[in-house]
Amino acid sequence: MCTGKCAHCVGLSLITLCLVCIVANALLLVPNGETSWTNTNHLSLQVWLMGGFIGGGLMVLCPGIAAVRAGGKGCCGAGCCGNRCRMLRSVFSSAFGVLGAIYCLSVSGAGLRNGPRCLINGEWGYHFEDTAGAYLLNRTLWDRCEAPPRVVPWNVTLFSLLVAASCLEIVLCGIQLVNATIGVFCGDCRKKQDAPH
């Protein structure tokens, strides 16, 4: 597969993943789909750090768009430098995307390890923090949270989704980093009529 086509495919995949991260982060703000719990006292710090929105979302959207554009015609058309200028831009964007995905992975991993902030015996707190993530395997502990309702499965599902998406983003940004570097030095292997506008 030539560098242009590869960049286009990777870019579309990154854009899809960043939208998944943004939606997952938005859902974390409304436990069990209820807006009544959207309060700094009721949601965990990891939700407010917006790892999915900022890191896995906006910071990965830039390399996604840059990769799609790198798969098109370059600043000088199909001749001259071809798409090498856009490939060079994609190299830097991909490195930026890796940082964003790592931020999302770190925040989401911490969110899974510490567990949600919830109400147990009239006290709000991180009641699963001392389990070092062992609560994930013991679903009987999940029912101890009185409020927000079903917050543990809600957080576990969405943070797990963010962890998986950010891992894929790191891999894809890494692939595009290598692909774009090759594209800078070797150009695009596509013929002029194959290059999309």
Please write out the topology:
Elements: H1 3-28, H2 45-48, H3 51-70, H4 84-114, E1 118-120, E2 123-125, H5 151-186
Helix pairs in contact: 1-3, 1-5, 3-4, 3-5, 4-5
Description:
It is a single chain. This protein is mostly helical. Helices cover 59% and strands 3% of the residues. It has five helices and two strands; from the N terminus they run ααααββα. Strand 1 (118-120) and strand 2 (123-125) form a beta hairpin. The two termini are 19 Å apart.
Structural key phrases:
197 residues, 59% helix, TM4SF5 isoform 2
Q: State the order of secondary-structure elements, H for helix, E for strand.
A: HHHHEEH
Strands ordered across the widest β-sheet: 1-2
Q: Show unreliable segments.
A: 74-80, 193-197
Average predicted local confidence, pLDDT: 85
Biggest sheet layout:
2 strands, antiparallel
Helix content bin? 55-70%
In one word, what is the shape? elongated
End-to-end distance, in Å? 19 Å
H/I helix tally: 5
* Number of E-state strands: 2
Gyration radius from CA atoms, angstroms: 21 Å
The domain count comes to 1
Subcellular location: Membrane
Keywords: Membrane, Transmembrane, Transmembrane helix
Main location: membrane
Membrane topology: Multi-pass membrane protein
